[in-house]
């Protein structure tokens, strides 16, 4: 009896596998002729999952809006880099070697983008980052671009806010040593703050932790004893929310500032009441649309996802549109030609503003400062780029 | 300086008792079955998620959800044993160990599929967030509750194992599996009870973890699982009081390392593993472990 059941199951599996084999063959037959593949390299699981998912939402929306280019259908190949540098390199290799994409969008997270840097450079496949802000992502890499500003600007914006708006004279820094984003942004903040305050001793303490840490009580106890006026703690939304929660539990009451990665629902949910008043810089806000494209983007996003779009969705949308624009100008789906046209992007009107790429492939754009108010991200002000 | 030191000690004790709580379940399964249940951390994760769904999507009061989730997690542990370990009973120990690692990966990835990759926030009942200040030290209420829960469970468990008939059966099983079954001990039942208690404790630890660090991810059990395994080895794997001692040593050690040698923060997790290696080299049976006489 048991044997018969087993035989039956095995034969069903066999038949199914033959059938599914046929199915994949058919689609792969179509692939080369009338489909243009764009790879999407984003963290869908792990510590940056929320950031990746929000970006992908924006990319999918853009793909729905403009689903063909040069008369061919655009197919998104989404791979999960699991918020892990090694996985990011593997995923990028898979995109260029196996899926043969003509261009790549991503990744959220500077370290994850940098892990893919050499792979896209050697394969001569252009990559457009949505929100990796560390300068090293595009530096000395002709094939990496981005549609966001970079950390020297972001760090300066937050140092100015701390010094001028909050009147802080002493600042402490807590950074995630495993994230190039956090380390880079902290050092630019430090440089700008020291310049403003006019003395090295204005940074009273620097402390660090690792991605994935849950307990920050030791670092915070040390910081508390130094009595800073403000704490700058850029890092993943999850770790940062826990950090702020624990800071408040330890009786630290000074303002805590961060960077663009804080903009995720999870930051508010995990942090709860503790993150009230937290201030961070970001790329875009739905409260102050900058271009006509922003308005249509916000409306389309609302219709599709039934919520307000945030900076990452908008950047994902823009990255996709810039690649499509470059393919159109190139006239054919050739990676190197697409790369040249992306590099030449000038005055492109996107959801997040006018995008012109400089010599390094970075966008020069304004920054938005947001503050958590009544359990929501609230808009404070917009800071124009330094000319 | 003094008040910071006291605050560091308070932080360390609270983290240590959390490690201890999870390590108890780990060490218990090992002590009785000689099986390192690598899926313990993932059972812990299931417990936290069950609590999350119970509080978020039902109107059952949180304290009942805590109990229900722990009991259900206990039964999940029993199911895991039935599916992944029981068919291999009698095989070489390494086979079951590999099965345990497989079960761990399966649970993690099933977690990603079912719960999603994005983190969820643990719906902490308001009472636990109350901050208590004693002089210059301030800690959230949950940090007082965790050591108390750990100590209560330690006492109950010791009583259960030393004084009840089921406990006696467990001890018999751990000494000699075959002889115990010849003496009329219901092996299957006893092993199921062991897994039930181990998984129940994992869930209790998970709930406490969720209250203290309210970030839920499908992979959240991996590192606590490993650390608590280390805590169990330090204390002497198989010894319940040893697991508690090991947990405290690890928790305090980690906090004091970061507090006084901030430049070594990056080595926080490495510290735990270095401690593991040292213990295995110097005193393989752990601080409170029994000396195992090798039969020749």
From TrEMBL, chain A:
Record's signal peptide: 1-20
Pfam family, one: Peripla_BP_6
Domain of life from the UniProt record: Bacteria
Keywords: Signal
Domain named Leucine-binding protein: residues: 36-367
Organism from which the protein derives: Tissierella pigra
Descriptive protein name: ABC transporter substrate-binding protein
Family listed: Belongs to the leucine-binding protein family.
From TrEMBL, chain B:
Protein name: Branched-chain amino acid ABC transporter permease
GO annotation terms (biological process): D-alanine transmembrane transport; L-alanine transport; L-isoleucine import across plasma membrane
Any one Gene Ontology molecular-function term assigned to this protein's record: L-isoleucine transmembrane transporter activity
Cross-referenced InterPro entries: ABC_transp_permease, BCAA_transport_permease
Membrane topology: Multi-pass membrane protein
GO cellular component, one term: plasma membrane
Family: Belongs to the binding-protein-dependent transport system permease family. LivHM subfamily.
Keyword Membrane: yes
Keywords: Amino-acid transport, Cell inner membrane, Cell membrane, Membrane, Transmembrane, Transmembrane helix, Transport
């Amino acid at each position: 009896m048991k044997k018969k059941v087993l035989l039956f199951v095995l034969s069903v599996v066999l038949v199914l596998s033959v059938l599914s084999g046929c199915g994949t063959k058919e689609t792969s037959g179509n692939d080369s002729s009338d489909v243009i593949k764009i790879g999407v390299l984003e963290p869908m699981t792990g510590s940056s999952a929320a950031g990746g998912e929000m970006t992908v939402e924006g990319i999918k929306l853009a793909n729905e809006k403009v689903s063909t280019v040069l008369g061919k259908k655009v197919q998104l190949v989404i791979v999960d880099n699991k918020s892990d540098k090694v996985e990011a390199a593997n995923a990028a290799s898979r995109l260029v070697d196996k899926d043969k994409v003509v261009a790549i969008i991503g990744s959220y997270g500077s370290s994850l983008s940098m892990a893919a840097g050499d792979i896209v450079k050697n394969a001569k496949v252009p990559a457009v980052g949505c929100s990796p802000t560390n300068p090293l992502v595009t530096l000395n890499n002709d094939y990496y671009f981005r549609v966001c500003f970079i950390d020297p600007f972001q760090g300066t914006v937050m140092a100015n806010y701390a010094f001028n708006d909050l009147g802080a004279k002493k600042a402490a820094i807590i950074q995630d040593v495993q994230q190039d984003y956090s380390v880079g942004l902290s050092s630019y903040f430090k440089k700008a703050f020291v310049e403003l305050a006019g003395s090295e001793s204005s940074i009273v303490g620097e402390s660090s932790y690792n991605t994935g840490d849950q307990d920050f009580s030791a670092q915070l106890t040390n910081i508390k004893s130094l009595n800073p006026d403000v704490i700058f703690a850029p890092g993943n939304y999850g770790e940062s929310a826990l950090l702020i929660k624990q800071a408040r539990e330890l009786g630290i009451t000074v303002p805590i500032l961060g960077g663009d990665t804080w903009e995720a629902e999870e930051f508010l949910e995990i942090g709860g009441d503790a993150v009230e008043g937290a201030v961070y810089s970001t790329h875009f806000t739905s409260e102050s649309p900058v271009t006509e494209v922003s308005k249509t983007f916000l409306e389309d996003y609302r219709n599709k996802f039934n919520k307000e779009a945030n900076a990452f969705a908008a950047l994902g949308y823009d990255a996709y549109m810039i690649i499509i624009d470059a393919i159109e100008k190139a006239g054919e789906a050739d990676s190197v030609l697409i790369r040249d046209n992306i590099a030449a992007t000038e005055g492109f009107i996107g959801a997040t503003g006018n995008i012109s790429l400089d010599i390094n492939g970075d966008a020069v754009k304004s920054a938005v400062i947001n503050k958590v108010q009544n359990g929501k991200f609230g808009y404070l002000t917009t800071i124009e780029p330094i000319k | 300086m003094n008040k910071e030191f006291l605050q560091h000690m308070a932080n360390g004790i609270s983290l240590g008792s959390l490690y201890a709580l999870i390590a108890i379940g780990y060490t218990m399964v090992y002590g009785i079955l000689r099986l390192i249940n690598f899926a313990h951390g993932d059972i812990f994760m299931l417990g936290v998620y069950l609590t999350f769904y119970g509080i978020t999507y039902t109107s059952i009061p949180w304290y009942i959800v805590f109990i229900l989730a722990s009991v259900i997690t206990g039964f999940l542990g029993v199911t895991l044993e039935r599916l992944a370990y029981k068919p291999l009973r009698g095989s070489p120990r390494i086979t079951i160990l590999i099965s345990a690692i497989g079960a761990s990966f399966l649970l993690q990835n099933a977690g990603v599929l079912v719960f999603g990759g994005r983190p969820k926030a643990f719906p902490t009942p308001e009472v636990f967030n109350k901050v208590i200040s004693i002089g210059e030290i301030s800690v959230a209420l949950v940090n007082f509750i965790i050591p108390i829960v750990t100590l209560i469970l330690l006492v109950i468990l010791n009583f259960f194992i030393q004084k009840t008939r089921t406990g006696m059966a467990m001890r018999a099983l751990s000494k000699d599996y075959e002889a115990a079954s010849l003496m009329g001990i219901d092996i299957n039942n006893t092993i199921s009870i062991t897994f039930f208690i181990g998984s129940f404790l994992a869930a209790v630890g998970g709930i406490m973890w969720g209250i203290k660090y309210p970030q839920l991810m499908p992979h959240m059990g991996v590192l606590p699982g490993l650390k608590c395994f280390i805590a169990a080895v330090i204390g002497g794997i198989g010894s319940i009081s040893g697991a508690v001692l090991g947990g405290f040593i690890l928790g305090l050690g980690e906090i004091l390392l970061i507090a006084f040698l901030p430049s070594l923060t990056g080595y926080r997790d490495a510290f735990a593993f270095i401690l593991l290696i040292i213990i295995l080299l110097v005193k393989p049976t752990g601080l409170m472990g029994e000396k195992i006489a090798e039969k020749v």
